[in-house]
Amino acid sequence: MTGRGWLEALEGGALGSAMRDSLWLYPAAETIHLLGLATLVGSAVAFDLRLLGVSSQLPARATARYLLTCARTGFGVAALSGFLLFTADATALADNPAFRWKLALIAIAGLNALRFHVGPFRAAADWDRGRPTPVAARIAAGVSLAVWIGAVAAGRLIAYI
Q1: Sequence-ordered alpha helix ranges (H) in 96-134
Q2: Whole-angstrom Cα distance, residue 120 to residue 135?
Q3: Total-model pTM
């Protein structure tokens, strides 16, 4: 399939139809999406705040092990439930600027996290506890906060644009 055909097929398929036609399926997926998003963003924000100096007595690596595991789980839940929501109205969502911004901001968040983990976090043993977080890690935390706030705002705006 080329062009928009795959969107129409997804929306017109059994899953898209079920998401639209069921009294409970769409609201259940939306609730699960919000719970996944809260887990993802809440964990990411807590870790970003640690990198920015809040609760600096907590070891960065142990905090990352716990919070980033929660964030990854939340991302998986949000992505799967988001896909289900997408199937209900794929053609309109693909044209929605807020939806596109949301996806772009999520991609930026992923690239920022990758850059953080292959960069400043590799030397976390040197600044794990009792030493200031390196500037590169603080910049990554600031970018993460801004991008996740933007993604949440864009997601909320989808219904209004």
Answers
A1: 97-118, 124-127
A2: 9
A3: 0.92
Structure tokens at 15: 């899953």
Tens digits of residue pLDDT in 30-42: 999 999 999 999 9
Residue written as token pair 């930026």: 108
Distance CA 70, CA 132 (A): 25
- Tokens 């699960």 correspond to 32
CA distance 157 to 161: 6
Dihedral-angle region of residue 55 (phi above 0 means left; psi in -120 to 50 means alpha; beta otherwise): left
Task: Tally Cβ neighbours within 10 Å of residue 152.
Answer: 16
Here the tokens at position 72 are 């990854």
Domain residue extents for the chain:
5-160
Closest CA to 64 of 25, 4, 122: 122
The rounded distance, in Å, linking the Cα atoms of 29 and 119 is 36
